Structure formats: structure tokens, C-alpha cells
Amino acid sequence: MKFxxxxxxxHIFLILFLVxxxxxxxxxxSVLPPEQGGMSYWVRFxxxxxxxxxxxxxxxxxxxxxxxxxxxKSIPVFLQK
Length: 81
Hints:
elongated, membrane, transmembrane helix, transmembrane
């Protein structure tokens, strides 16, 4: 029982850490003026997501968290009907 809660906490902290890293990547592009490569949010997101390890890490850890939750039969609230 204790192991399951530790795994959930690790997943949540890793997801939050990677979201923070991705936010920093996005913020670095936003502080630049347009002459130096600064651009709107959606254009930045379009140019950053496919080359960002943090974005793929968010996806992988979120999917593994969902897999772990379904495996132990504790479905997150937002997925329940």
C-alpha cells in the first residue's frame, strides 16, 4: 500500500517538474523581442513542442500515471463517468 502511494507521488512530482521545465522553455522565447525571435504564444508552442524533451516527458509520465492508476483500479476522478 505504501509503495503505491510513493509511486503516485513520484509521478505527480515528475509531471509537475517537467511542466515547469516546459514553461521555462516557453518563457525564454517570450522575453525576446520580435527582431530576435520572440513571437506569439501559439507560434512559440508550435515551434517548441516537437523539439522539447520536457514536452515528451510530460506525455510519457502522464500516460504512465494513468496506466498505473488503471492497473491498480483507482481511476482518477476526471476519467470517471
